[in-house]
Amino acid sequence: EIKDKSPNPDNVEFYAQRIVNDSAKRQAIDILSETSKEIQDTDDPLGKMAEAVGRMENVRSVSVDKTVFSIQDLFKIRTDYLEKKQRGEINEEVLSTGLKDLDELLNGGLRFRHFDVLAARPAMGKTSLAVQIALNAGLREGFKTLIFSIEMSKEDIMDKMTSIESKVPYRKINQGDLGQDEWDKITQFAMNISPKGETDPQVLIDDVTKDLNRMIAVIRRCVRKHGVKFVVIDYLQLMNIPGKFNTRDEQLGQAVNTLAFTAKTLNINVLALSQLNRGVESRENRRPHMSDLRESGNIEQAAWRVLSIYREDYYNSESDQVGVAEIAVLKGKISNTGKVQVHFDKECTRFNNLAWQHSEM
Questions:
Q1: In 87-153, where does DSSP find H-type helix?
Q2: Quick check: 63 pLDDT over 60?
Q3: What is the pLDDT of residues 273-299, one digit of tens each?
Q4: Among positive and negative, which fits the CA dihedral 261, 267, 273, 276?
Q5: CB 272, CB 116: distance < 8 Å
Q6: CA nearest 165: which of 141, 194, 148, 189?
Q7: Are 249 and 295 in contact (CB under 8 A)?
Q8: Which letter does DSSP use for residue 176 in this model?
Q9: Which residues have CB under 8 Å from 107's CB, separation 6+?
Q10: Which of 267, 360, 255 has its CA nearest to residue 299?
Q11: Rounded distance between C-alpha atoms, residue 284 and residue 121, angstroms
Q12: Mean pLDDT, to the nearest integer, of 235-248?
């Protein structure tokens, strides 16, 4: 029954482990309740306590054993997987960004079970890029997407999506200044959202949730109910993170580690947006570095990949790089580091492909 109802067969072990944990919890409560009564009625409380510890240890070992694998068993599992992959029986799923150059640098795209970070200074287009990747995932790749928009309203995000996909300038949509040609493009976008009357959502938007614990609950529910595979969080520094912490770095560390664990256990990709320090503006070379991440230590440690955006024409309108954006991979645990150039359509806040250019950082 669990296998049939879980949103993805890959998650069956996760749900089964939840059942094991709940069962262990019930058994532990029963043992403690019985022990409490036995200790009150016995002349040998230390003996009863020892018995209880033994019974509790048995419950704990059953639960823990489900998460521990021997090197022999794990090696066999992985070699069986590699053989099937070599024979073409397994195609590893990756989430394409929709930008060929960037996908090439990322060895195909974003990976599931990974927590990634997209960082940039304000107005560089990080929200637009994340929304564009989400649209590509939902409309063309077939991966359901959830966007947490803490900064922008859901209406603004919808307008941004409409502009990116229809290629109608965002300004015209925002002002309601639309001709028939623009309406035709928007109508075509509407048809892409609901092909042949399909109502199952490809992209979900939440502009209310900003509490970390609540966010995790929403993610779990959307994975279970809708089969969500890609989550965008815009952005890390605006999240509410419950708990007592000595520094903001510790607080964000709790958030990113929780999100990374959630991505791993639910077999999804989580892409969190992050601001960069103002120190970038004071340098002659304003291209982002890993050290420019706000409260960077825990963020860069938890992330599988850290991506950044830089646009020379934002700082110099006379630059020969007008309309060109650099997307860099500053950290890649399983991919290259480097940068690619893409075209940035400022009117529609849309990123487009250019010829692949890779250079070392």
A1: 100-105, 126-135
A2: no
A3: 998 877 777 777 778 887 777 666 778
A4: positive
A5: yes
A6: 189
A7: yes
A8: T
A9: 94, 334, 335, 336
A10: 255
A11: 15
A12: 83
Which of the 8 DSSP states describes residue 359? B
Locus of tokens 């709790």: 254
* d(C-alpha 133, C-alpha 145), whole Å: 10
Residue in 350, 352, 351 with CA at minimum distance from that of residue 173: 350
* DSSP code for 280: G
In the chain the first and final C-alpha atoms are separated, in Å, by: 50
Rounded Cα distance, 335 and 71, in Å: 26
Task: For residue 160, give the nearest of 120, 130, 117, 202 by alpha carbon.
Answer: 130
3-state helix, strand, coil in the chain (%, to 5): 50, 20, 30
Alpha carbon distance 341, 332 (integer Å): 18
Q: What is the full DSSP assignment across 73-99?
A: HHHHHHHHHHHHHHTTS----EE--S-
Q: What's the CA gap between 191 and 200, in Å, rounded?
A: 13
Report the predicted TM-score, pTM, of the whole model to 2 decimal places.
0.75
DSSP, collapsed to helix, strand or coil, labels residue 153 as: coil
355 pLDDT more than 70? no
Q: How far apart are CA 350 and CA 343, in angstroms?
A: 8
Say what the pLDDT of residue 188 is.
87
Q: Which residues contact 355 (CB under 8 A, 6 or more apart)?
A: 101
Question: Cβ of 221: how many Cβ atoms within 10 Å?
Answer: 12
Q: What is the per-residue burial (b if ≥16 Cβ within 10 Å, else e) of 133-160?
A: bbbbbbbebebbbbbbbbbbeeeebbbb
Q: Which residues contact 19 (CB under 8 A, 6 or more apart)?
A: 2
The closest alpha carbon to 245, from 260, 262, 257, 231, belongs to: 257
Q: Could you tell me which residues are beta bridge partners of residue 272?
A: 117, 233
Rounded distance between C-alpha atoms, residue 152 and residue 220, angstroms: 23
Token duo for residue 187: 């109508």
Q: Which amino acid is at 134?
A: A
Classify strands 324-332 and 305-310 as parallel, antiparallel or unpaired.
antiparallel
